[in-house]
Amino acid sequence: MSDAWNDRKRALEEDYFRKKDQAAIEKMRAQRAAREAQMAPMQCPRCDGTLTEVAMDDVLIDRCAKCNGVWLDAGELERLTEGTQPEGWFARLRNTLAGD
């Protein structure tokens, strides 16, 4: 009778540690996927060229190396136009992009 209890106890213990190991593996896979997603270059939605970040008035904007398109993330246009005339920030943007 005690052998059955020991076997049951051992089976429950092995199941517990198997579940803990599986959870740790899934967590590590999610972390690796997040790192790989950050490292992968973004693609231009227009032409599938590679987007590179360009600094403009302390705002990082995305510029396509293939079609020279400029892509702004949420809130970046507002940050660029704060306290300036529209011609002013656009001219600075054009000059910044022409300088690359």
Structural overview:
The termini are far apart. The radius of gyration is 26 Å and the shape is rod-shaped. It has helices at residues 2-39, 76-81, 86-98, and strands at 51-56, 59-64, 70-71. The protein has 100 residues and is α+β, with helices and mostly antiparallel strands. The mean pLDDT is 83. The protein has a 3-stranded antiparallel sheet with strand order 1-2-3. Helix content is 57%, strand content 14%.
Strand and helix map with partners:
Elements: H1 2-39, E1 51-56, E2 59-64, E3 70-71, H2 76-81, H3 86-98
Antiparallel strand pairs: 1-2, 2-3
Tally of extended strands?
3
Uncertain ranges? none
- What gross morphology would you assign? rod-shaped
Strand content: 5-15%
SSE order, one letter for each helix or strand: HEEEHH
Number of alpha- plus pi-helical segments: 3
Distance between the termini: 80 Å
Mean pLDDT: 83
